[in-house]
Amino acid sequence: MSDQVVENKPAAEPAIRTVRVLIQPTPRKIRVRFGGETVAESVKALIVHERGHLPVYYFPREDVRFDLLESTDHSTHCPLKGDASYWTIQAGGRISENAAWSYPEAIPESKGLEGYIAFYWDRVDQWFEEEEEVFVHPRDPYKRVDFLASTRHIRVELDGVTVAESRSPVISFETGQPVRYYLPEADVNSEYLLSSDTVTRCPYKGIAAYHSVQVAGTEHKDLIWRYNEPIAAAKAIEGRLSFYNERVQIYVDGELEVVAKSERSVLDSIRLHIA
């Protein structure tokens, strides 16, 4: 086995100027549902990037069902946007308190948000981009995910035991994340796998199921995940298994991979730029 080490780390931060809030139109049709009703739907929504936060969709007031909203006394202040007013959603016999907000008199830096309404992602039932359901948060237009078929020799070791080995991985290259290796199920030793009830959601891949791994009597909880029914853009990894690189030893063509921590500042700088 080679003693060489291959490092998996983000590129150096680009030398670009940054802004604190970036407001852009999105060409996608965005839809929000709650209590069996479409609360907002628009082809003129904005996507707003703010340093240190996930992207947020804002809808023109005319594309929001105000018959389903009730204004509240709740308010908050943001130094980058101004004072926010809030609404509670009532639909289908259900209530989601202070689930929507707007900036009726935004500060000059964020004037473009006046006349728009935003919703907390986790206080509504469903989000759609066009007719495809999206989970967790909006898909960031400055983030890229590529799934590439490969013939690299991937060997996964845990506590000195080889638990998977493949020469036909699909490799995921995702902005701001470590490289991930999705292996055919047949190339993962099933004798070490334990079932798990854990389920997570990813806006770029879909709904993930998990396996724990037990080696020499030690259980490693939710070490493996798979997308049995990924979204169309992630079809290449359907049914394949991937390990957390950070919790195992992965050898790529005989060289031990060292996974560096993601540097969110790199993605933030790319996302919040002035052309």
Automatic annotation (TrEMBL):
The DUF427 domain, residue ranges: 30-122, 154-246
Pfam families for the chain: NTP_transf_9
Membrane-crossing segments per the record: none
UniProt-listed InterPro entries: DUF427, DUF427_sf
Annotated protein name in UniProt: DUF427 domain-containing protein
Taxonomic placement: Bacteria, Bacillati, Bacillota, Bacilli, Bacillales
